[in-house]
Amino acid sequence: MKKEIVVVGAGGHAKVCIELLQAMGELVAYCVGGAESPESCVGVPVLKGDENLERLREEGYFRLFVAIGSNSLRERLATLAIEQGYQLVSAISPQSIISPSAQLGSGIAVMAGAIINADAAIGDLAIINTGATVDHDCQIGRAVHLAPQCALAGNVVVGRQSFLGVGCKVIPEVSLGECVVIGAGGVVISDINGGATAVGVPARVIK
Length: 207
Hints:
6-stranded mixed β-sheet
């Protein structure tokens, strides 16, 4: 078995995640990208086409990170990789601060400057982006993305595949359903149902 990591994705998000993995002391063997991907991604060779995942698995690679920003696509590709026998790894910056009582899922990305406080739970495939803060007892669902500088107060629940844009704020005890989108700079002061998009200060549902 080969311990080098295969990264799915070859765009800007992949660049950051590769450097996170390298900062952890990991080696990244290949990126697997699409037909329009570059030949390399921050020095890592790029293989074009998802069919390469099966070939690399046959060659003995079994550790994989999905570096795709889209929540739904990230979850779909991770499911495909797991079915092929891959094991998801996480990319966690040494410059993040994570409580010893926090629960971390697999395949997550935690960027530099992020803070995850006591008894928070981060679901599989979540992204806690640069400088985002998750306070005590928050529940972050599977394949959620908290964009840079988001700030969640205590006991916030964020449902699966939700996206909170740059600089969002959420007050304590608020619950967001699955696949919610909060526009950049939004301030969430009340619960938002699944599938809704909300923007503004305070955040109001627009669809």
